[in-house]
Amino acid sequence: MRLGLVVVCVLCVTACSGAKVYSIYETADKIEADGYHSETHHVTTSDGYILEMHRIPYKTSAAEVKQDRPVVFLMHGLMSASVSFVLLGPQLSFAYHLVDAGFDVWMGNARGNKNSRHHVALDPDDDLQKYAFFDFSFEEIGMRDLPAMIDYALEYTKQDQLHYIGHSQGGTVYLVFSSMLPEYNKKIKSTHLLAGVGYMEYFPHQELAQMASMSDMIYGLALQNGVVELYPPNSTDMFPADLFPIPGQRIADNCAGNLRLSHYCELIGVRHLLRNVAEPGIDDQPGAALKQIAHYGQNIRDKIFRRFHYGSLDNVDIYGSSTPPAYDLGLITTHVTMHYSLADELLDERDVLAMVADMPNAIARKVARDSFEHSDYVIALDAKELVTDYIIAAINNDGVPPPTQATPAPTEATPAPTPATSAPSTATTPSAVVVVDGTTEGATTNEAAQPTEADEAAPTQADEATTPPTGSAYTFSTISYSYLVVISLIFMLR
């Protein structure tokens, strides 16, 4: 069992209004049930993928709806979907807070998840065509999906610009999108990346960082075994009935009282999931292409944020060089705020500050609660106070972050575990602005902070001790681990 887990760990590095044509989640119905107007839109990319978007223009009970509301586009993380932004219901969900603030909210779905698992010519369920359908990484999402969805939203709303918010991989694809297609920078009013993964030189998850060197080998082995997709429809059907006694149900339902799965259930976060359920769960995992994981694995292994590595010979044919080119963040001219936290196991502070230093108009914002984790931006009960309110204030300020107060900068980044595969680092913090709830730490060569009165004081240690726990029926903090169960069991049971 340990061997099967190790094999997969290498790859884990995570307008038709009201139509339900492609979605199995009934996201639009959930939005309506929560008291908000919902629209479902579909757009076809330049390479034939049919993507689903959900729009929440206003609250159903709104007495008056302002015209020309700021358009805000939300993009989910790896193995996630638009439902992640409305999962916690009307009182806690990230998207609803933005709608309540008067914004026109659009939520995208990346190719390959179950909302966007369609193509004009390719069948993802065909044993041969599935290889072509799932032959994409996060690069294609950034270069094909985002332009199609953003253009559609702007044309539909008759706006020239929108505000972009991306969580996790939603940040990765934005960095690809705005650096590879710099002409789109003028269409983005402001950007907020929530644990946006890009640079991974100091990737904090030590075990995964050690094993990332085997990513290409394991990816090839998976393809040979017909594994191209994570969480295909009815994925539990591939397991013995006594292992998953409730076929078609959430993994959480199967984990309850199942001793054989106790190790895996703890690994994928079901213990956390069952302990603190805030909303009824969805019926399945959204899914993704295995190549998305492999691309992250390559970048962790090579300690560089660059395009997919196909091998030296193929790289020459595709890129004109034996090594893949790196993404040039210097081409991103939009105002970018990178939100990060110290407890994030997938994103290190030093990498965040390095990205900010390489972008001409960016700042870093550290979440005030040190225990804030990678997924908490969309599932934490205190995310509104710690993150969302700041974003709302920035958008209301024409996309400019709230005023900050300059304070002395630390000379070195917060220490973080160094992966065993890398030499001890002597790097110092790149020059960058770091904002913590209205207080700016540090100067920057990119954008000078203007000393003004702070909006609010950072929470005290006592305040943090009483912070509500995170909780959801669909966990995203450990979603990157979930596919370990699926693929490792494939290798062990086939």
**Tally of individual domains:** 1
The description of the largest β-sheet is: 12 strands, mixed
Rg, Cα atoms, Å: 21 Å
Q: Estimate the helix proportion, in percent.
A: 25-40%
Helix/strand-derived category reads alpha/beta
User: CATH top level?
Assistant: Alpha Beta
Mean pLDDT: 76
Secondary structure: number of strands: 14
Global morphology: globular
Total number of helical segments? Answer: 18
The name of the CATH superfamily reads: Alpha/Beta hydrolase fold, catalytic domain
- Provide the β-strand percentage band: 5-15%
Low-confidence stretches: 1-23, 236-252, 259-281, 405-430, 442-494
Which CATH architecture would you pick? 3-Layer(aba) Sandwich
CATH topology: Rossmann fold
Signal peptide: 1-18
Organism: Chrysodeixis includens (Soybean looper)
Family: Belongs to the AB hydrolase superfamily. Lipase family.
Domain Partial AB-hydrolase lipase: 28-87
Structure characterization notes:
Residues 398-430, 443-471 are annotated as: Disordered. Belongs to the AB hydrolase superfamily. Lipase family. This protein is of the alpha/beta class. The chain has helices spanning 2-9, 27-33, 94-100, 129-133, 138-157, 169-180, 206-211, 215-224, 251-255, 262-267, 270-275, 290-302, 312-319, 349-358, 376-379, 383-396, 461-465, 479-493; strands spanning 39-44, 49-56, 71-75, 104-107, 118-119, 162-167, 188-194, 229-230, 288-289, 336-340, 362-366, 405-407, 434-436, 439-441. The strands form two sheets. Strands 1, 2, 3, 4, 5, 6, 7, 10, 11, 12, 13 and 14 form a twelve-stranded mixed beta sheet that branches. The protein has a two-stranded antiparallel sheet with strand order 8-9. Strand 1 and strand 2 (49-56) form a beta hairpin.
